[in-house]
Amino acid sequence: MSMYNPKKIESKWQKRWTKENFEVWHADDKSKKRKMYVMDMFPYPSGEGLHVGHVEGYTASDIMSRYYRMRGLNVLHPMGWDAFGLPAENYAIKKKIHPKIVVEKNVKNFTKQLRRLGFGYDWQREINTTDPEYYRWTQWIFLQLLKQGLAYEAEVPVNWCPSCKTVLANEEVINDKCDRCGTLVERKQLKQWVLKITAYAERLLEDLAVLDWPEKVKEMQKHWIGRSEGAELEFPVADSNLKIKVFTTRADTLPGATYLVLAPEHSLITTLGARIINQSSVKDYLEKAKHKSELERMAEAQTKTGVELKGITAINPYTQKEIPVWVSDYVLSSYGTGAIMSVPAHDERDFAFAKEFGLPVAQVVSEKKDQQELPELTEAYVGDGVMFNAGDLNGLPNHIAKDRIIELVGGKKRINYKLRDWIFSRQRYWGEPIPVIKCEKCGVVPVPEKDLPVLLPRVKNYQPTGEAESPLAAIKKWVNVKCPTCEGPAKRETNTMPQWAGSCWYYLRYLDISNKEEMVDKAKEKYWMPVDVYIGGVEHAVLHLLYARFWHKVLFDIGAVSTKEPFQKLVNQGLILGPDGQKMSKSRGNVVNPDEMIEKFGADSLRLYEMFMGPLEDAKPWQTDGIVGLYRFLTRIYNLVIGFKKAKEKLADSDKSVALDRLLHKTIKKVTEDIENFRFNTAISAMMILLNEMEKNKSQLSVVSCQLLVKLLAPFAPHLAQELWEQLGNETLLDNEVWPEFDEKLTEDSEVELIIQVNGRLRDKVLVSKVITQKEAEELVLEREKVKEHLGKKKPKKIIFVPGRLINIVI
RNA sequence: GCCCUCGUGGUGAAAUUGGCAGACACGCCAGCUUUAGGAGCUGGUUCCGCAAGGAGUAGAGGUUCAAAUCCUCUCGAGGGCACCA
Could you tell me the pTM of the whole model? Predict the structure, then answer.
């Protein structure tokens, strides 16, 4: 008997499913059918090649798209390359090959790997973010942001990675380390392009409600946006008409504000400089704070530092008391007003600061109601309570006092967000040039849209300079241009865009990849958007997914797209851990190579195993032993179908088993529902159960049952399914076949096993009609030997009956 | 420190969402098959017990006729945020 030979079968079908002219996977833009847009997070084509983690997500989306195609939907399932940015560039530097060549080579390798896995992409829509015809539109979107006042240049404190030699976005800094290379970031003050994502904070938060996303991701975005409601209050500076504005969420504690603290960068320190008595020690402190490394700041998180601005006092607008003003770097210049009112009694940080410097602590909110005197606080009391030591407000619940106080002192209610604007310049070569020209006379001039794309010039030296400029600055020919407005001498912006730029809108370009007039054709956009299913890792929860939503909303506002949100449903595949249960990494030596697995077991086995491992969203350890089971499963299907084909001549087609027929319909139902709910592991186990039964009843198989099994298998193991389909005498492609329907009646058994419990414990089981009534069941059950045994002489107190399932006799 | 998620056999996991715990698979054990191949087939496999039976879903308590599932606390793992006033 011939053996299941995945290598032979898979290469046979992969040759037919050619990238160039395989029309079945090509989505039709003019179809009248219902559309289904299934998209993966596209990879950056690293030199490492495809990872088993890629295989997991990509298999899931491949199953979805093959399934929906068989359901008669017009499926769009594209693939592309996120090839700009640090990963590609760092790799190029390491290997001393130009990034462009590296990317081309890696794309070729990735393509080969994806094809070996049998993924059914619409290759006619392949995109590459480094293609000038692609990034022309990335630059175009930047110009729209500029036009809308959403892109601006500013001198801002930035995170600088000394190893990658570039500025990083807030989102790229994890625990004060560079997300890419793990180096501790430095703080620098640099002139940068910044995108005003904060203008969209409220909408980015609000619209999370309409998204069908994992709660975890929504929660992370919510926290990252960090909305907090509070008030802005003004403290007059004594002997001056200046005022210090503070932001607080606890205006109710204003009576307990015993001093103010300014951030080191606060403008008032310079404005009032002359009045400061201890100028030299203040200067010292500011200087230290400026040069403090992130490491020192982290170490100091517990013990607070600061210095008093002697000679300057402010008036607490509620108590009218004169209070001191301090400077400390625990106050952030970039949040709120850069100044706070300090209430040591009701804020942990303020408490620590007051203890450090012996400043007064005044408790004004008390947990208990009728207290005459309060014991000395050993820690800040941050809970709710009633007002105390607060004049007219005494005895009032603090949340009511809050609004009163804001009104009384003329404060303004305000909402603040933790979200910061997106620092958009990178001092690196391998990115989209920012399409801006700087003219001595005209200032910042956008490159006219007709001159796009601004091509990234080929250079010999693409290593980062380590300065505030990218390597592009060295190319005089490219940098020096005529100003588009006045024709005078001008220079190009030499910074490039961050790696996230290209992925902010790629889902739109898949819809219309060769359009030279527009980013995307309106009709096509309207037909395909939004993306129905988006599958990728959770690591992009606050990076790519937030940025892309932001750009999409801007595009919506200027009428370029028709939906509020880009990705309707998001599914996160969980990490595949190494066999040791640890995250896969080269240094641990626990990386599993998908190529090796394909070599040994075939792509179908690998696909199936990764889907069978466990729930898609869960992190789960790789076990090479486990893939053997799926290989065996496929072998058995192969043997069953081929064996059936050989025996068919001798068998009559009519001797079908009713039980098998029922199981078949149950399985169709289970697999169908499981695919739609991304429960691939249980879908596969249902097919295994079916196969076990079919093997036991070989003599009762029919062509129809074999064909149904093959169709169910098709989205999961497309090569083997197609091969067996052909072996069964079909010339068609399974992609064009219709997904099997199930007969609801056949999925329901007329008889069920009734569980018999006494006092909640399982004592017996009995096969009964599904529609048995409580009365019938009681009569039947009370006559059973086992039940009588357990009842003894006692009478049932109560009988619980769950129709078609269970009966519980309580005694 | 704060927030979120999760703890089920030797392993990956399943459990119609409050109704038979451990489906399906890996591994292991026994047997069969001249069988040297990560082969196939049959049976067994949560724990204690010869059995009847009992115990059992990290631990303790609670709600319920009934809890892996709901509630409270404790412990443990993973992830996110981290001076955001």
Answer: 0.93
Q: Cα A774 from chain centroid?
A: 50
Q: Which of residues 395-424 of A touch strand B (CB under 7 A)?
A: 416, 418
Per-residue pLDDT of A777-806, as tens digits, reads 888 888 888 888 777 777 888 888 988 888
Assess whether A223 (CB) lies less than 7 A from strand B: yes
Beta bridge partners of A39: A534
What sections of A337-450 are H helices per DSSP?
A: 348-357, 398-408
Which residue from A550, A417, A431 is spatially nearest to A493, judged by alpha carbons? A431
Closest nucleotide to residue A789 (Cα to C1')? B52
In Å, what is the CA distance from A253 to each residue of A248, A257, A312, A404? Answer: 9, 7, 23, 12
Given a contact cutoff of 8 angstroms between Cβ atoms, the answer to whether A619 and A649 are in contact is no
A466 versus A110: the higher-pLDDT residue is: A110
Q: How many CB atoms lie within 10 A of CB A565?
A: 21
Cβ-contact A711, A625 below 8 angstroms:
no
CA A619 to C1' B18 (Å) is 27
Phi/psi for A546 (5° steps) reads: -80, -45
* CA–CA gap between residue A354 and residue A360 (Å, rounded): 7
User: A38, A25 in Cβ contact below 8 A?
Assistant: no
pLDDT digits (tens, 9 = 90+) for A203-240: 999 999 999 999 999 999 999 999 999 999 999 999 99
CA separation for the pair A329, A248 (Å, rounded): 17
